[in-house]
Design a protein that fits this description.
Shape of chain A: globular
Number of helices of chain A: 10
Radius of gyration of chain B: 27 Å
Structural class of chain B: alpha+beta
Largest sheet of chain A: 5 strands, antiparallel
Strand order of the largest sheet of chain B: 3-5-1-12-9-10-11
Strand order of the largest sheet of chain A: 4-5-10-6-7
Oligomer: heterodimer
Helix content of chain A: 25-40%
Largest interface: A-B, 23 and 29 residues
Radius of gyration of chain A: 18 Å
Largest sheet of chain B: 7 strands, mixed
Number of helices of chain B: 21
Helix content of chain B: 25-40%
Distance between the termini of chain B: 67 Å
Distance between the termini of chain A: 44 Å
Chain lengths: 257, 783
């Protein structure tokens, strides 16, 4: 139960929303699906004075070229390719997938989640709007640290753009978790092609997604170990554990490509 | 007798109401004018409470009462404890509903408010100022026993809650002359039981009657009434406790939880009903089962185990009033489970640490004894190069030996241990599993098969305590022929009430749908001890059977007079009372006649059509034997489990490929409900083996207070489970029933642990610490 008083705004357009964001700055939080924000407010883990609900801003589109900040996992699940595959594997059942958004997940930047690594792997561009206009960031620039992104006070994520990929590019995905309830312990996305290009993006392995490029599959294990300088540690698995399992998860992603 | 009701998988009583959301649970109840209680909990694992200033909170909007520890101590006595450490060699601990001058664990309740809304109450908490002087906390058993360590309780000389030593025969001699001695250890983590419904209590103090009504999630309403009356200093008759439908308990809702008394006091102060509902995060404060054992067994060259030595240390947290730490006492008593060895020595120590008190967790300490024995048997098999199934065959008590007196004095009533073993080996296709294992091992895969025998003594009577081996039911028939059963037992949601109604229906020849069952209300039900240790069906159904038979005899007398036939020639079935000649009356006609024509057809019998009977099973014997031991359990359910697992070499993750269990709880009144309990128990044992763990950091703060970090098995995590039923009736109980509900937890845990150990055995490593989470297992696999 939310026990602190707060103001809820439901703007009817992006312009209105960014106006509110500018006015309230860091006092405000944006509400997408609410599966993180509302739960946190219920537990009093955060107590924003202002909540800006984005559900009426027309941000709920989803195609292979990109999706709005309010596109739900259910919508993304219908897309072909990696994004659809990952969206279908988001746990929590239809109740969660019908509400939760990939945009919200990106802004939350929880290391133990699926979306950040997917956006890095797809070389997505995140579009931020403020009353000063729009700003575009690559996924790699967007994720700064655990629970920390480049979104500034007064800015709102409005959409995510996905570059077109040639048919010769293949993806494989592998997610390690400890049972159905568990958050992702480590995820890996292998991107193969064009040509000999082999790129692997590790998610849930460190504070931010970690990208590795090799020209030969046999170099993958060492490259993964070398790139994982500071593996993530939490109550379910230590950094030593993540360091040890990362190459295996990466290899499984490659095998699935 | 209504044929076939007992032994039939009758649909759950009132099941349709639950399915459509009409089953009322605690939080569904809505009493106008109810205030909301919020509880302030210590953020420190150990601290002196220097002062509590609640003045600002009292003045806050919506607040109607505030209670500090000192306030509460002035208004009521301590909570009577289920078991006192001082009775078993430990220190003295008074348990109060709110901490007075010492906070003993993170989460210890130190103050409470009642306010108009939940939000008002939460806000008021933030206005209460508590001055803490942080003290050193002791957070693990090794530290608790180290000389010179801090004590969990400031005024205790050490941290010992209980020390127990059991010896039978001559273990020293047996070990000295044994062909083989096998030693090992196992460390079991703190876990919890997570009922889907958390706890809650609603107290309503009537200032005119000076009486209290407490509605709440309690397994034991009459016992709750007893202790509330004692703590509040009022007569029991002035207290009514009502338990609505319970959404599961598994031991977490037994009598003595402090919040019940807190809301009672708040209600008195505020002059209004006060409700407290536990939030899910706080429910993870409830924990238990944390203990470690070192064990050794002495066997001969053919794998027959002669002797057992086991040492155990249980980290029980702080002493609570609800049953909890006493489980460690039962761990010691349950050795050597269903095996024949005579020379046994058990040393068990329970130590206090600054963690929340143990709850009574399903298994009640017996699961640990089973785990140790099953590890030992597997290690014997490995040492001697024998099939683990064969080691069990050579050591389990044989059918012709029952009733069998164990080395710790328990009298095992009946069973077919060997038969259950063979049935489970067939159910899991043991031979195929070993072939699959050989093929898997040839390609370097880690594939294991684990077995476990599990003994679950049930329904104990422990003299001088409220752990009671008898219970009472009333059966009533009204003039319209309506049958009602009022029981002293309660149901935690597992279906014992359905079983009781089946038994009564069978005795009276009436359909279960026509019978009303009333439970959980101290104003309406005979004094009883609620549910725990699988006693509800055993004692509830048996006492109801006796009461129903007595009422049946009265009805037979009436019908006999009405039909002018001998009472012995009457059959009760299909809602009718029928004579051999074919003449029949409806049940309703007979009932009505008893009341309206009493002087004609019911002379010479006691009216109304009601009987209250108590049932006391056999086998319980409190006369100490030559070694001073008593035999507190009437019955002994058991099971044999077989688990097939694969361990992922690169992640340490375990997948249970399939699981089978052959169990025996004596006569089954409702097989479907028994099977439901078994599947749930297997899920619980699997979770305990592979993932569930309550984790505390170095300052005593709980890190796992949500389902994302406390990993319960979910439906997709469950393997296919085959359940095989055996029915060896108990010779000591009225219906041959034993107890169902607990069996499954310890056996599944042990079988899965053994399977993982078996999977890892080619690597030359063994499992010694639970849970066998992927990081724990990967740590055993060489990089």
């Amino acid at each position: 139960m939310i026990s602190h008083p707060f103001a809820l705004f439901v703007p009817g357009s992006v312009e209105e929303a960014v106006g509110l964001a500018a006015r309230y700055g860091s006092e405000a939080r944006a509400l997408a699906g609410g599966t993180v924000l509302v739960a946190e407010m219920n537990r009093a883990a955060c107590r924003p004075g202002v909540v800006i609900d984005l559900s009426r801003c027309g941000l709920a589109n989803a195609t292979s070229a990109g999706f709005g900040a309010m596109a739900t996992y259910r919508q993304l699940a219908a897309l072909p390719g990696l994004l659809g595959r990952v969206a279908r594997g988001i746990m929590g059942g239809p109740q969660i997938r019908n509400r939760a958004t990939a945009g919200g997940s990106a802004c939350h930047a929880n290391p133990s989640s699926d979306v950040p690594a997917v956006l890095v792997a797809l070389k997505a561009t995140l579009v931020l709007a403020s009353d000063a206009g729009e700003r575009r960031l690559s996924a790699a620039e967007f994720f700064l640290d655990a629970f920390s992104t480049a979104v500034q006070p007064g800015e709102l994520l409005v959409s995510v753009e996905l570059p077109a990929l040639g048919p010769e590019v293949r993806f494989g995905y592998s997610k390690l978790k400890f049972g159905e309830s568990s958050w992702p312990i480590l995820t890996a996305i292998a991107i193969v092609g064009p040509g000999d290009m082999l790129r692997v993006v590790l998610g849930a392995a460190a504070a931010v997604p970690v990208a590795v490029e090799v020209s030969r599959a046999s170099d993958l294990d060492d490259a993964v170990r070398g790139a994982l300088v500071e593996p993530w540690s939490d109550v379910l698995a230590s950094s030593e554990y993540r360091r040890r399992v990362a190459p295996g998860v990466a290899r499984r992603a490659l095998e699935a490509a | 007798m209504q044929s076939g009701l007992v032994g039939r998988s009758q649909r759950r009583l009132n099941g349709d109401r639950f399915l459509i959301g009409r089953g009322a649970f605690f939080d569904d109840l809505d009493l106008p004018g109810t205030l909301h209680a919020a509880i302030m909990r210590s953020p420190h694992a150990h601290a002196r409470i220097r002062g509590v200033d609640a003045s600002e909170a009292l003045a806050a909007p919506g607040v109607r009462a505030v209670l500090t520890g000192t306030d509460a101590a002035g208004l009521c006595g301590p909570i009577p404890q289920a078991m006192r450490p001082s009775d078993v060699g430990g220190g003295t601990a008074e348990v109060r509903c709110l901490a007075v001058d010492e906070a003993l664990y993170e989460g210890h309740a130190v103050a409470a408010v009642a306010a108009d809304s939940h939000a008002d109450a939460q806000r008021a908490l933030s206005l209460i100022g508590v001055e803490y002087e942080v003290l050193p906390a002791v957070l693990d058993a090794a530290s608790a026993l180290a000389p010179g360590c801090p004590t969990a309780y400031l005024d205790w000389p050490d941290n010992v809650v209980m020390r127990r030593h059991i010896q039978n025969g001559n273990p020293d001699a047996a070990f000295a002359t044994a062909a083989h001695v096998v030693e090992d250890s196992i460390e079991i983590q703190r876990s919890t039981t997570v009922p889907i419904e958390p706890r809650g209590y609603l107290a309503s103090w009537d200032r005119f009657q000076e009486s209290l009504t407490l509605t709440g999630t309690t397994q034991q309403p009459h016992l709750e009434r007893m202790l509330l009356a004692a703590a509040l200093g009022i007569a029991e008759e002035r207290v009514r406790v009502v338990a609505p439908n319970l959404g599961g308990a598994f031991g977490a809702k037994m009598r003595g939880q402090p919040e019940a008394l807190v809301v009672a006091l708040l209600s008195r102060l505020a002059g209004a009903p006060v409700k407290w509902l536990e939030d899910r995060a706080a429910s993870f404060l409830q924990g238990a089962r944390e203990q470690s054992h070192r064990f050794s067994v002495a066997c001969d060259a053919s794998g027959v185990v002669r002797a057992l030595r086991v040492e155990g240390v249980a980290d029980v947290g702080i002493v609570g009033a609800a049953p909890g730490w006493g489980m460690s006492f039962l761990t010691s008593l349950t050795f050597p489970t269903g095996y024949r060895m005579r020379d046994v020595e058990v040393r068990m120590t329970a130590v206090a640490t600054n963690k929340p008190p143990w709850i009574a967790a399903r298994g009640f300490g017996k699961e640990a004894s089973n785990l140790v024995m099953e590890r030992a048997m597997d290690l014997v098999a490995r040492r001697l190069g024998l099939d683990p199934a064969e080691v069990r065959r050579r050591n389990l008590v044989g059918n012709c030996e029952f009733p069998y007196r164990t080395a710790t004095g328990l009298n095992l009533d009946s069973g077919d241990y060997g038969g259950a073993l063979e049935r489970v080996l067939a159910a899991v296709d043991y031979r195929a599993a070993r072939s699959e294992q050989a093929a898997a091992r040839a390609t370097g895969r880690l594939f294991g098969v684990g077995l476990a025998f599990e003994l679950t003594p049930e329904a104990a009577d422990i003299p001088g305590t409220v752990t009671s081996g008898f219970d009472t039911s009333t059966v009533r028939v009204s003039p319209s022929g309506a049958v009602s059963v009022l029981t002293g037992v309660t149901s935690p949601g597992g279906g014992s009430d359905t079983a009781i109604v089946q038994v009564v229906g069978q005795r009276l020849g009436v359909a279960p749908e026509a019978i009303t069952l009333v439970q959980g209300d101290t104003d309406r039900c005979p004094f009883g001890f609620g549910n725990s240790s699988a006693r509800a069906t055993l004692l509830g159904a048996s006492s109801a059977a006796l009461a129903a038979e007595e009422v049946r005899a009265k009805l037979a007398g009436v019908a006999s007079a009405m039909l002018d036939v001998p009472a012995s020639s009457l059959a009760f079935a299909g809602g009718q009372v029928r004579a051999d000649s074919g003449a029949a009356l409806s049940f309703r006609q007979v009932a009505e006649a008893a009341y309206t024509r009493a002087f004609e057809v019911a002379s010479g019998m006691e009216l109304p059509l009601e009987a209250t009977r108590t049932y006391r099973p056999g086998n319980i014997d409190h006369r100490p034997d030559a070694q001073g031991r008593i035999q507190p359990y009437p019955t002994y359910s058991y099971a044999v489990h077989a688990s097939v697992v694969e361990v992922d070499r690169s992640t340490g993750a375990t997948r249970v490929v399939r699981h089978a269990v052959a169990h025996d709880c004596g006569t089954m009144i409702n097989p479907a409900l028994v099977e439901g309990q078994m599947l749930g128990a297997v899920a619980m044992g699997l979770g305990m083996a592979l993932g569930e763990r309550l984790v505390y950091d170095a300052s005593g703060r709980l890190l796992t207070d949500r389902f994302k970090t406390y990993l319960l098995p979910r439906a997709p995590d469950m393997p296919p489970v085959t359940v095989v039923h055996l029915e060896t009736p108990s010779p000591f109980t009225l219906l041959g029933t034993k107890g169902a509900g607990e069996t499954g937890v310890g056996g599944a845990q042990a079988a899965i642990v053994n399977a993982v150990d078996d999977a890892l055995s080619p690597l030359g490593v063994g499992v010694r610490r639970l849970p066998l989470s992927p990081p724990e297992v990967l740590g055993l696999i060489p990089a």
